[in-house]
Amino acid sequence: MIKVVAKGVYLEGKTDEAIALYDEMVKETRNEQGCIAYNLFRDKDNKDILTMIEEWESVEALEAHKNSEHFTRIIPKIARLRKSAELNVYELIY
Question: Model confidence over 16-63: pLDDT tens digits?
Fold first, then answer.
C-alpha cells in the first residue's frame, strides 16, 4: 500500500477557489482503479492550509492517477493558487 500526503499553503483569498477545483478532482479520483482513499482536509487553525491524504493499492495505481486526464488538467490550476507545497509518498512497513 502507498500513502501520499500532499500539503499546500494557499494564497490569501484563494483557498476556497482551490477547494472548488478539488471537488471534481476528488470525485473523479475516487473512481480510479487502485484508489483506496482520497480525502481533502483543511487545517483547523490555519484555513489556508489544505492537505490531501491518499491511499493507493500500488505505485502503479498512483502513477496511473498522476497521468489521468483530470489530474493533468486540474493540478496545474491548483498549483497556481498555492504559496508553497510539500509532498510525501510513503510505503507501508507494518
Answer: 999 999 999 999 999 999 999 999 999 999 999 999 999 999 999 999
Domains of the chain, by residue range, sit at: 2-91
Q: For 76-86, b where at least 16 C-beta lie within 10 A, e where not — what string?
A: eebeebbeeee
pTM over 0.90: yes
Question: What Å distances lie between residue 7 and 3, 14, 31, 33, 59, CA to CA?
Answer: 13, 15, 22, 23, 20
* Diameter over CA atoms, the chain: 40
Was domain 2-91 assigned CATH 3.30.70.100?
A: yes
